[in-house]
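Researcher: I need the complex structure. Ligand is protoporphyrin IX containing FE. Inputs:
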Amino acid sequence: MSEEWRGPIATMRNGWGGRDFPHPAGRRRLLGDLPQGMDPRTPLQNSMARCRDLGPIFEMRFLNRRIVFVQGAALNAELCDESRFGKTLAPAVSNLRMFVGDGLFTAYTDEPNWALAHDLLRPAFTKPAMVTYHDTMNEVADELIERWERADAPVDVSGDLTRLTLETIGRTSFSHSFGSFEREEQDVFVSSMIRALTHGMRRQAIMMMPWGRWVVGRADRRAQAAQSVVDDMVDGIIADRLAADDNHERDLLGLMLHSAHQDTGARLDPLAVRRNVVTFLVAGHETTSGALSFALWFLATHPQVRSRAQAEVDAVLAGEVGGIPSYAAIARLRYVRRVLDEALRLWPTAPAYARTPLRDTVIGEGAGVGAPITMTTDDWALIHLPLLHRDRSVWGEDVERFDPDRFLPEAVRRRPAHSYKPFGTGERACIGRQFALHEAVLVLARLLHRFDFEADPGYELRITERLTLMPEGFTLTPRLRTPSTVSTIDQ
Ligand code: HEM
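Model: Output:
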């Protein structure tokens, strides 16, 4: 077992000065808060059901391990203060270091490769870069639309949107096509990645079992075998680019291979390039396909929201050549964007981030936690985003109601800072936020323009957890809209 992926968080005591926090009912002396009779594959949803009334900060113990969660907006705002707190790696994230080491997502902020990759790769996420990705995003959306036009049975929404987002990140950032729409079976990259992510999430739980250290070795070997499939594929992409003698920094891969830091001249070494290619392929598609899938679920089950979104799309795309949105048109799709924002409020697809203080400190004054709480550099808290986004003091009593108008500019201005955090916070916030939002609004608009959606009346939303959240078994019947409801489709 290499030190690299064990990670310091495993050694953090998380003692919180001996203070106990509220915990769910039914704690058992040895097992702690392991849920009885609840599905062990859905820890996040279990904690939502059991802990939402426990106040701004609560804890769960699993055997001898304690996890402290923050769900209160005021307390989260404090933990988002970058002068006092920074990112640490939750166990499920630090477990991924066995696959991607100090890649951008899994690096500790003080590791040199974090700052280097962050500085070198930022140009790939500026507005001029987004403009260059726009046509490719439309091309991939065309392929999805063609697939759904041909469909003679309900479509697998999350599966097809995963094809779309993987293809988009592959083509825009690595000039590589996975051919995702050319075959029926799941891409081997996706299945291997899912195995690795699921392993990352469950590894901690396995380790805590009495026989865990024995079992985990076998599970690690299986996950590593899956990872070597990913590594081989990524090495192939890198080798092809190097063999093409193409030294341009025209995409993310070009930047990784050929750019040097403007102050220090430092470059990413080959291992760091591989780790970051894998990081971006994974981070760049899984969360966005989940966000799109949840948005379509809400649209399919809220006809009035869908009609309003379609009216906006029809109006905006009526002025666009062939009904295809230009780059500038995306910013005019304000209601569609609000649909997405609200879907990410209820189901933030990267559902947690971990914070630790830079120096020993005291938190919680005026945050409804009783006496202020001492937090040392040995303590860390996990911000529980689905519960943060349901804090009634911020969002009102009807937190479960899907209402995109919560994101009207005046409503956003009225809300306290840091109450909505689907893309994380501070310098470690999501580097791909604009990419994801541009892609998702574009795709939703294209789908709403072309199709009406009929949800299966017998389906109730089920959610798979594998570090990210994704609707499970969600199918839709897309029906072509008629010319009388859409004026620009066949121009
Ligand atoms: C709806 C889609 C997305 C969501 C909800 C999302 C969410 C997040 C969150 C919450 C974090 C911070 C995690 C933490 O603090 O531990 C993060 C970081 C990150 N995201 Fe995203 N993300 C999305 C799309 C993307 C895309 C499209 C890309 C790349 C093209 C991307 C690349 C990354 C990377 C590399 C980081 C690590 C950044 C750093 O630590 O410097 N994400 N994302």
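Model: Summary of the prediction. The CA atoms of residues 346 and 360 lie 33 Å apart.
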